[in-house]
Amino acid sequence: MTLPHDVAVAFPGHEPSADLRAIGAREDALLEAGDVAGATELMVDTWLGPEADEAAREAVRRMQRHAFEVQLAVDEEFWPLQAEIDLTAIEARCLAVSGRHDVTDFRQIAARLPGLLAHADHVELPWAGHLPSLERPSDTTDLLLGFLRQPAPVG
Length: 155
Fold this sequence. Notes:
By secondary structure, this protein is mostly helical. It is globular, with a radius of gyration of 17 Å. The protein is built from 6 helices and 2 strands. Helix content is about 50%, strand content about 10%. It has 2 domains: about 20-75, no CATH class; about 85-150, no CATH class. Helix 4 (about 105-115) links the parallel strand 1 (about 95-100) and strand 2 (about 120-125). It has helices at about 20-30, 35-45, 55-75, 105-115, 130-135, 135-150; strands at about 95-100, 120-125.
């Protein structure tokens, strides 16, 4: 699955839930049947919260359709590189953002980060899906700027 303008997080070694696997299987079945429009709408519905306006829906629709077209034009699959990561070694401040209407996997991962990173906070946006920066750009920008304006922890 392709995640455009994504502030939601992935996690090393995370095993996808049955729900996330089902979304992926539905996406794959639609694409294998040549139904790019159906797969695109599945992703629009999956990644956006219920309050997303038509402009956000259309932006995700365009990006997702383009991503599918690019992926389908390639003759081979590409798998992400695997690397060992020690999250507890990260000293930088982190704001883990999740949307209340996102897939449970991404919400759970974001909620776990403050327990693993020395200087992490988690905020769950009650109105958001997976793409809050498209759903409410100003609110998301304000949230990020507020976090970045906070003084860095000492020590």
